[in-house]
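Appendix B, record 7
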Amino acid sequence: MSKSLSSSQTLQRANHWSGAHDLVTLTYDDRFLRRKVLTTAQGERFLVDLPQTTSLNHGDAFELTDGRLIEVIAAKEPLIEVTGPDLTRLAWHIGNRHTPCQIEPDRLLIQHDHVIRDMLAQLGATLRDISEPFTPEGGAYGHGRTHGHAH
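Structure tokens (predicted):
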């Protein structure tokens, strides 16, 4: 007798829920989904079946049909840390290429892209390979996702 797969059609946004039963760790790209089978840290598989493709944030939670909550954790992933004397100018060039970017006071984080890396080096940026969770800015008007030209 096979056990039926748990499912989730409901998403609870970060800071609007408490009491996670388990967690699932996802990269930035994996946090953009509509329908997919995921596996929790404890090895439980469940089906995500949301009404539309949704951008998930670190700290959101899937609510399973039995009421249990599975917290979404942003996975560490390989990134490029961008620093330099004129971060505003560097951020403009990154944004002009429609590249997702995590903006912090003293640095910018982007996913690995050799073309963008070469451009930033030419502009005088200091670049360093790191591994951290990636939580870039949302799209226009502060929500949604930006997409590179590969979408």
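Remarks on this record: Residues 5 and 80 are 38 Å apart (CA to CA). The helical segments are 87-96, 114-122.
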